[in-house]
Amino acid sequence: MVLEAVMIVVDNSESSRNGDYTPTRFEAQCDAVNILFQNVIQGNPESSVGLMSMGGKGPEVLATLTVDQGKILEGLHRTKKNIRGSAHLATGIQVAHLALKHRQNKSQRARIVVFVCSPIEDIESDLVKLAKKMKKANTSVDFVLFGDIDEENQKKLTAFNEIVKGSGQGSHLEVIPPSSKLLSDQLLATPIFLGENAGQGGAGGGGSAAEEFEFGVDPSADPELALALRMSMEEEKARQERAARAEAEAAGQNTLETVKEDNESTPLLGKDGEPSGNKKDDDKMDTS
């Protein structure tokens, strides 16, 4: 999996109180953030995730880049008591980019995931300029648009996405309408969670369609099973690598124990790891 540093931006504006997503728009974000954190860290233990909000008086960094999920949960809990005002999308992205710019591991791919559930007050031209800046900085930006999914919001985010995405990978826009399903469940089958291969294949072919999906499972049909199978495969691969390293180390130890010095007919070490040789001579007392 990709080594990345991810800043997640949640929308804690007044609109996040609405209950059209179970149980509320803000709680739906919290659930999705926790699953996204687990997905990033389990994908690569050297990746890291940070958290910030963009509502109220302005953006606030809630947790710097970390591998400790407790810090993310603490930040979400604090923000739950600070739901007010409107969202500051452009400023939030700029602050997130600044936090990623100061990441310790520069080999991590910079990525921002923004949850948007309120009207976007920034004008489109400003967002386009910001998108060009993110593209130049090689920072991918994913948007999860839910709640206020009107035409104006989609138009602005689509303009941003088309610029920052370019011809490269990353930077996705997912529009999630209200549903009986949890927001996190609907996101499991998207490229934001599963990468570039999410949802590919399956268009025609009948019985051979399943072969086009990883593990033969369509992520859009059963996202939880697809994610579980992927993680199981990665755990098995890691187990096999550990076993191979252990076997190589054991073989190297056995070779060392049987090395003989020049003109010696016996190895330096016996089978019990003790020095070999004539024990009777060692036991004799020096009577000279």
Structure report:
- Strand 2 (about 50-55) and strand 3 (about 60-65) form a beta hairpin.
- It is globular, with a radius of gyration of 28 Å.
- With about 290 residues, the protein is an alpha/beta fold.
- It has helices at about 25-45, 70-80, 90-100, 125-135, 150-165, 185, 190-195, 225-255, 280-285; strands at about 5-10, 50-55, 60-65, 110-115, 140-145, 175.
- The chain has a six-stranded mixed sheet, with helices on both faces.
- The N and C termini lie far apart (about 70 Å).
- The protein contains nine helices and six strands.
- InterPro entries: PSMD4, UIM_dom, VWF_A, vWFA_dom_sf.
- This is Proteasome regulatory particle base subunit rpn10.
- It comes from Podospora bellae-mahoneyi.
Quick summary of this structure?
Residues 233-248, 271-288 have a biased composition (Basic and acidic residues). The chain has helices spanning 25-43, 69-80, 89-101, 124-136, 151-165, 183-187, 191-194, 223-257, 279-283; strands at residues 4-10, 48-53, 60-66, 109-116, 140-146, 173-176. The protein has 288 residues and is an alpha/beta fold.
Radius of gyration: 28 Å
> Low-confidence parts, pLDDT < 50 over ≥5 residues?
200-213, 279-284
What is the number of helices?
Answer: 9
Q: Would you report the number of β strands?
A: 6
From the helix content, strand content and strand pairing, which structural class follows?
Answer: alpha/beta
Average pLDDT reading: 82
Could you give the order of the helices and strands? EHEEHHEHEHEHHHH
> Distance between the terminal alpha carbons, to the nearest Å?
72 Å
Helix content: 40-55%
Query: Strand share of the residues?
Result: 5-15%
> Biggest β-sheet, characterized?
6 strands, mixed
Query: What gross morphology would you assign?
Result: globular
